[in-house]
Amino acid sequence: MPDYSNLAIAAALDELGDLYELDGAVIHRVLAYRTAARAIRDAPMSVGALAREGRVTELPGVGRTLEEKILALLDTGSIPAAEKLRARFPPGLMDLTRLPGLGPKRARQLFDQLGIDSLDALREAAEGQQLRGIRGFGPKFERTVIEALDAGLGEQPAPRVLLPRALGLGEQIRDELRAHHAADRVELAGSARRLADSVKDLDIIATATDPAALAAALGELDVIESASVAGPNAGRARTHNGMPVDLRVVEPGQFGNLLQHFTGSAAHNVALREAAVRRGLHVSEYGILDDASGETLHCETEEGVYERLGLAWIAPELREGRGELAAAANGGLPARLIEVSDLRGDLHMHTTASDGRNSIEQMARAALERGYEYIAITDHSATHGFGNDVSPDELRAQIEAVAEVNARIEGIEILAGSEVNILPDGSPDYDDELLAALDWVIGSVHTSFGIGEAEMTKRMVAACEHPYIDAIGHPTGRKIESRAPYAVSIDALVEAAARTGTMIEINSAPDRRDLNDVHARAAHDAGVRILVNSDSHGVSTLSNVRWGIATARRAWLGRDDVANALPWARFAPLRKRAR
Ligand code: DGT
Ligand code: CA
Ligand code: CA
Ligand code: ZN
């Protein structure tokens, strides 16, 4: 699973470089880490996946030493060399290195000569005009450093965590709190409950027979590194991997109000308040105040909150302030959102023919076990690079191999497919004759991301117009929290897809979820058939469709709105080649 984004790996190596510099290492050693970090940040593929395949040294500037450190990070969550160096310096010293005009070397000078080991100590020294006594520092530096501190520079913004890891942590904490003798109800709220792309902090709402005891119990959990009491019956904590956790223990009679409020989103809550005001009601996290009677209604359940406001209960995934309140008022909410168990097929997966870990047969048997009626084997194509090219001859052999397995395994239709590269001019990288011999083709952009919006839009519209490209894969190329989408007009892409009957996937890789929720909803509304595909590179990640389904739900989609929730007999004729 791509748990470490390229950005996260690069940040760890940058930090290691800073630590070495703080430690006085020779500069070329420091630079080696920075160079590698840059290469990793810019790499078009998942460096984590590359490292797990034992191929990370193929990246420029990454040798055996770095490989070992990257693997340690992936396997254990930290790099031993960094741990050792971190222990040698006060933790606040690294904050200094992020200030303008203060690299590791100069920060070390301040530490050695004045004992400055934190942003607070630095401010004190600057305000006391003590810095000017040190060689290379003067009154001007003292002034700029105070300005920088006032602007909040140097403080590390907590990184947002991808949903799978946040949800894993959140559910673990929730379940351990539930097991506490003082606990009554414990629920996860916030962005994790809404199944958002990423999560800043975990919000947990509980009721308890002994609220103070439950709040204190949070700090005792194994996953928690440090905790503080945040008012009566509330706890704030931090997990070992830096994720903040907020716990609020409330009166059972107000549980619904608090759960609703802390599930959010902020945009949903703001819209909810405005709608309530028009009914003479004032909604807060503690209750609903009736302006006329002066009475405050407390709700044990969340359903009660929505009911008092004349609304149907709204699934947390829809609570983003995107029209869900109007829909809840007039019966316009989707009757039932799609679920993982609705999927009948998966149209994007890789095998050992390109960069996957399992064979066609292994993928097919695992899909069968998931209850699928059909899958498409879509290895990378002729120009993928990184040693994973599938030449035209190899693809012909693959078509036969798929047919052989398909004939042998009962109960599942195995399509011979390909994930072809959409070349900069919009054409696929196999010829039409070969594409016509396949059962299914996904077109994806894997190269030349920076050609600009007009060119990229033309390129993707051309791909939609191709007679053998059945679907577009991960249409914007974004990697959540680590790579911006490339510039492309989604409106034009959606229009072309609807016009040509090209499907568009929600790629379920947890760092992709591409199309995103907003775009998937727009595409569906424009008449595009949406797929939820795993893009799995092994049997263990077929289950990643969970994250794509989360995005589909956030896009308001039901079972009938997702093409691969259709049985094979209805899906088959929707392919361009079958029409
Ligand atoms: P994040 O950033 O991933 O933690 O996202 P959330 O949605 O969990 O946001 P968080 O933890 O800052 O706040 C939890 C909930 O509290 C949020 O979903 C709704 C509520 N809330 C936060 N700020 C506001 C606000 O300014 N107005 C209202 N009405 N509610 C808010
Ligand atoms: Ca939160
Ligand atoms: Ca929060
Ligand atoms: Zn791809």
Automatic annotation (TrEMBL):
GO terms for cellular component: cytosol. InterPro entries: DNA-dir_DNA_pol_X, DNA_pol_lamdba_lyase_dom_sf, DNA_Pol_thumb_sf, HHH_MUS81, Hlx-hairpin-Hlx_DNA-bd_motif, NT_sf, PHP_dom, PHP_phosphatase. Residues 4-320 form the DNA-directed DNA polymerase X domain. Its EC number is 2.7.7.7. The gene is polX. GO terms for biological process: DNA repair. Residues 345-424 form the Polymerase/histidinol phosphatase N-terminal domain. It is an enzyme of class 2 (transferase). It comes from the Bacteria. This is DNA-directed DNA polymerase. It catalyses: DNA(n) + a 2'-deoxyribonucleoside 5'-triphosphate = DNA(n+1) + diphosphate. GO terms for molecular function: DNA binding; DNA-directed DNA polymerase activity; exonuclease activity; phosphoric ester hydrolase activity; zinc ion binding. It holds the Pfam family HHH_8. Its cofactor is Mg(2+). Keywords: DNA replication, DNA synthesis, DNA-directed DNA polymerase, Exonuclease, Hydrolase, Nuclease, Nucleotidyltransferase, Transferase. SUPFAM superfamilies: DNA polymerase beta, N-terminal domain-like, Nucleotidyltransferase, PHP domain-like. Residues 54-73, 94-113, 129-148 form the Helix-hairpin-helix DNA-binding motif class domain.
